[in-house]
Amino acid sequence: MNRVDEDEYRQFVTARLEPLRVTAYLLCRDWHTADDLVSITVGKLYRHWPRVRAVGHVDAYVRGMLTNAWLDEQRRPWRRERVTDDVPDQADLNPPQSALADREVLLDLLTRLPARRRAVVVLRFYCDLSVEETARALGISTGTVKSQAARGLESLRAEALGNVSRNGEGA
After folding, report:
1. What are the tens digits of pLDDT across the range 7-46?
2. CA–CA–CA angle 113, 118, 120 (5° rounding)
3. Sequence ranges of the domains in the chain
4. Could you tell me the pTM of the whole model?
5. Which fold has domain 1-79?
6. In the chain, where do the E strands start and end?
7. CB 17 within 8 A of CB 38
8. Which of 105, 109, 129, 168 is the S-S candidate for 133 at Cβ 3.0 to 4.6 Å?
9. Nearest C-alpha neighbor of 135 from the set 114, 121, 125, 120
10. Cβ-count burial of 86 within 10 angstroms (0-12 exposed, 13-18 middle, 19+ buried)?
């Protein structure tokens, strides 16, 4: 890579590092894994920078790279194992209805979605991508994006209502 390309690459990565890190965290819910995903993405981006910068929407392309890195990580066998020694904290058995709007509750609900559906929800509603941009980033059809987004939101609502009723405030 020549000096001009490398300078452009550094400027791009410096400006986008924190938003990429936050997006990665929303996907995986772990800051260490998020940092690993961003490192993987930035490394791949460096190797392919001359070709990537020629793309019209570099940000969307890089978000797609990040999402695909996360999906690849989800497919790894050791990711299927769950630690059971840590008992989850239960702060309040009867949280108010407004607690569902709390960020932690929403992030916990988001983690319960399947990987592909979570990727669609994060890209559509956190990154504010259009259906078409999300489809391009994930390499799927627009119809799949629409159905996965609808099912993801439906699952989030059902889980949220389930949390309320399990805590004694629903039905």
Report:
1. 999 999 999 999 999 999 999 988 999 999 999 999 999 9
2. 140
3. 1-79, 93-171
4. 0.57
5. Rna Polymerase Sigma Factor; Chain: A (1.10.1740)
6. none
7. yes
8. 129
9. 120
10. exposed
State what percent of residues in the chain have pLDDT above 90.
50
Tens place of pLDDT for every residue, the chain, 171 residues?
A: 788 888 999 999 999 999 999 999 999 988 999 999 999 999 999 999 988 888 888 998 999 999 999 998 888 766 555 555 665 555 555 555 554 456 777 888 888 899 999 999 999 988 989 999 999 999 999 999 999 999 999 998 888 777 655 555 544
Contacts 24+ apart (CB under 8 A), 152-157: 152/113, 152/117, 152/118, 152/120, 152/121, 153/121, 155/112, 155/113, 155/117, 156/106, 156/109, 156/110, 156/113, 156/121
The length of the chain, given as a count of residues: 171
Amino acid sitting at position 83: V
